[in-house]
Design brief:
By secondary structure, this protein is mainly alpha-helical. The protein is about 75% helix and about 0% strand. The chain has one domain: ABC transporter involved in vitamin B12 uptake, BtuC (Orthogonal Bundle). The longest helix is centred in the N-terminal third of the chain and has 29 residues.
Length: about 325
């Protein structure tokens, strides 16, 4: 059984890598003058995918438990505002330590929102969709209030170049911006947690069959508490990267990010029914979205076409998953 499952996972991952290669090749052929395969464009795809990937790591854990988190974009907005406010509150030329304090405050704010979501879902037994739909509005409003309904500028620190190109840096051999490396390390650690720890097994057990998991002694409320708190943490990390990307504490940033995050998880093989999902698949899903976005810009497509494509991909992926689930039940 383990052998068959392993082969199925390998086949699923190979299919998603193939889909990524297909989409990339398609735009490489369609975009004139080789602009799509230019090193700068490839680097831009990785940078834009980093924010989605960071948030999608946490969303993967939530979706595996058959949950949902719609507050991701608002948490990112709150995080960038908190970072900017802390930097503004410090000296005109903030030290590296002060910048670290701003980062910890931003991630801490995101983690607290995740904990709030977890508490409402586990203690009051409210459906995750309703809870996170509510906190989406609440946190967005708090971000706007904290920023005075305007973007906050702040002094430059080591946070700003986290997603900058490294090709002109003395350590350019690293090839990828520091923020991208951060996402890859967090993705690896989370993937190892899912595969080799008790918590990982409990996450899959709850998503596969919550009643059976409870009968087997799995603490449902504790696992969900950890999962949604981690989702808030990863949304906070995405907020750090978003701040690096825009350089401002903009409370209106990342509107609709939750849809791109859900799309990344679903494209990557996550099932909204729960019990399925991989971090590697999610990262590939985020890259596919990044390729579509970059390709659309170079092709001159208007923004609404990209939004239609993202929505269509979500519907198609969920429909395919539903058909597959029914086939398994038969």
């Amino acid at each position: 059984m383990k052998r068959r499952l392993s082969l199925r996972q390998v086949a699923s991952l190979a299919a998603r890598v193939g889909a990524l290669a297909l989409v990339f090749t398609l735009f490489a052929l369609l975009v004139p003058e080789g602009r799509f395969v230019d090193v700068r464009n490839v680097e831009n795809i990785l940078v834009q995918s980093a924010v989605v990937s960071a948030a999608a790591i946490g969303a993967t854990l939530v979706i595996i438990t058959a949950g949902i988190d719609l507050s991701v974009g608002s948490v990112v907005a709150l995080t960038v505002v908190v970072i900017a406010r802390v930097l503004r509150a410090g000296p005109n030329d903030p030290s590296a330590l002060w910048a670290l304090l701003a980062v910890l405050a931003g991630v801490g704010a995101g983690t607290l929102v995740g904990l709030l979501n977890a508490a409402l879902i586990t203690s009051l037994r409210i459906v995750p969709f309703i809870v996170t739909l509510g906190t989406l509005q609440i946190i967005r409003g708090l971000a706007k209030g904290a920023a005075g309904n305007a973007a906050i500028s702040a002094p430059e620190t080591w946070i700003n170049p986290m997603l900058d190109s490294v090709r002109q840096q003395p350590w350019h051999w690293v090839q990828l911006p520091p923020g991208v490396w951060l996402v890859l390390v967090l993705a690896l650690l989370t993937a190892l947690m899912l595969r080799y720890t008790v918590l990982g097994r409990h996450i899959f057990a709850i998503g596969s069959n919550e009643k059976t998991a409870r009968l087997c002694g799995v603490s449902i409320w504790r696992t969900r508490l950890i999962v949604y708190t981690l989702a808030g943490f990863f949304a906070g990390v995405a907020g750090i990267l978003q701040y690096s990307y825009i350089g401002l504490g903009d409370p209106t940033t990342a509107v609709g990010l939750e849809l791109a995050v859900i799309a990344a998880v679903v494209i990557g093989g996550g099932s909204l029914m729960g019990g399925e999902g991989t971090i590697s698949g999610t990262i590939i899903g985020a890259l596919i979205i990044g390729v579509l976005g970059a390709g659309g810009v170079l092709m001159g497509w208007p923004k609404w076409i990209q939004e239609v494509m993202t929505g269509g991909i979500i519907v198609a992926a969920v429909a395919i998953d539903q058909v597959r689930q029914r086939a398994i039940l038969r």
